[in-house]
Amino acid sequence: MKNKIKKITTILIATVFIFAMSACKEKKSKNLIISEQEDKKIVNLFGPMEKTNPEFDNVARNAFDTTIAIAEKKLNLLVEYKTYTAENYQEKTYDDVCLDRARNNMDDFYLLNPDTIQILGSEGFLADLSILDNAENLREVVKTANTVNGKLVAIPQEIVAHGLFVNKDMFDKYNLSLPNTPEEFLACCKVFQENGIETPVGANRWWLENFVFAQAYADLYNGGNTEVEIQALNSGEKKYSDYMRPGFMFLKELIDNGYVDAKKALISEAIEAEGPDFLAQKTPIVMAYWGAANTETAYGNPDFELQVIGFPSKRGQMPVVSMTGYGININAEHLEDTIKVLDTILSDEALQLYTETNKVISPSKNVEVNCIPALKPLNDKMKENTYVLGSNAGMNVEQWGNTCIIVRNLLNGASVEECMAEFDKLQEQALQKN
Fold first, then answer.
1. pLDDT tens for residues 251-288?
2. DSSP of 19-42, one letter per residue?
3. Residue of 321, 288, 319, 322 whose CA lies nearest to 306
4. Cα radius of gyration (the chain)
5. Signed CA dihedral, 66, 351, 325, 8: sign only
6. Cα separation of 311 and 52, whole Å?
7. pLDDT higher than 80, residue 91
8. CB-CB contact of 153 with 393 (8 Å)
9. Listing from the earlier edge strand, what are the strands of the sheet with 41-47?
10. Roughly how many angstroms between the first and final C-alpha of the chain, as a whole number?
11. How many angstroms separate the CA atoms of 286 and 159, rounded?
């Protein structure tokens, strides 16, 4: 299970970067520090991608590189990229390599997945980023997701919100309102099925857990008692399984009624499996992340009115948020300069550029995305601070990867109670470890 979780959480890194990468990237651009620049100070970044050639126009460089260029110019230094793909790591995952490099003080800062943030933060290898000048601009969701033992140990350049992608035209055809609660969602599925749409929900093996998170943690993150409830979970006073059970019961009902094809979902990759039927208007509902609505290779150019809404919960439509983050090695060789670099790329000026380029949700409460109309319902919820987290470094049981795997067990025929037993086992292991 551990290896599967690492594979799943590594996908979060890929999600953030895949649509930001420049089409003009070339292999010859790996080593960009030329001899006449060797007198400049250097900060080392370990991440999943290489630096694009600075000779290209900024339009052809990805948004992250552009913000790094701002820092390099302002601070008169160089950020040298050390990449996962540039090394021969054989069977090691990106997370494995990040853990090894951070524990051995090999780099100054890193782009980290949620589970790696949790591990390195709890082990004391990540600096407290609340000292950054721009930390005061952060949205609460960022602080909540990336705080370990009272320290803010990672900050992203974007917030990844997941939602339901719905064909509004098909809902209108059958006089259906967009669902807010699990009961309303099931009622919509029943009407679609009665009108010949055999499988109303297009699903894959990665994202069904969003239904679970929305129902499990709607009150925890929106009831004004988040910190106390998480502390109770971490101490064992409350059980993760009690939170998760309603969401798994809901998924079981979707499966039993044929609203989700469990066998197909179990072997399906995201978007490429359910996407064609959704775009062909054979399936009215799929699930994806914010960026998929902006990308023509995903759902950015449909022949119908697309709406992206939150997942159903007892508190209404609920976005599910996951995020990677940049963390600084507390023993970084160039600690002072690294802090200045991260503070610069997280400034409102840099984040405005990043947000406008990638059309994403900014971690800064001062920077708003000019989103397409389809994303407005999801964006409105985020503006209201209505959300649940699918990844939270402050929880002692890793959320995203574990829940995904246990949902797959359900798809493969496990009972709800068997799935809950898996959560109890994970919680017991976490308690023993701590």
1. 999 999 999 999 998 888 878 888 899 999 999 999 99
2. TTS-TT--GGGS----GGGTTSEE
3. 288
4. 22
5. negative
6. 37
7. no
8. yes
9. 77-83, 41-47, 109-112, 325-328
10. 20
11. 20
CA dist 104 → 34, 99, 101, 113 (Å):
27, 9, 5, 18
- At 47, is the secondary structure helix, strand, or coil? strand
Residue type, 353: L
Q: Provide the 10 A C-beta neighbour count for residue 261.
A: 18
User: β-pairing, 77-83 with 41-47?
Assistant: parallel
Q: Is the pLDDT of residue 83 over 90?
A: no
Q: What is the mean pLDDT of residues 5-13?
A: 54
Between CA 225 and CA 198, with CA 402 as vertex, the angle to 5 degrees is 100
Half-sphere exposure of 410 toward its Cβ, with a 13 Å CA cutoff?
32
pLDDT-wise least confident of 88-97, 145-154, 380-389: 88-97
> What is the signed CA dihedral for 302, 411, 269, 63, rounded to 10 degrees?
80
Cβ atoms of 331 and 104 closer than 8 Å: no
Pair of tokens at residue 374 = 């389809």
Question: What is the C-alpha to C-alpha distance for residues 397 and 96, in angstroms, rounded to an integer?
Answer: 18
**Sequence-ordered alpha helix ranges (H) in 52-181:** 63-75, 94-103, 114-123, 140-145, 168-173
Q: Which of 13-17, 27-31, 101-105 has the highest mean predicted lDDT (pLDDT)?
A: 101-105
Q: Which of 129, 68, 82 is nearest to 345 (CA)?
A: 68
pLDDT, average across residues 217-226: 94
- Strand 325-328 versus strand 109-112 pairing type: antiparallel
pLDDT of residue 62: 79
How many angstroms separate the CA atoms of 210 and 278, rounded? 18
CB 250, CB 354: distance < 8 Å = no
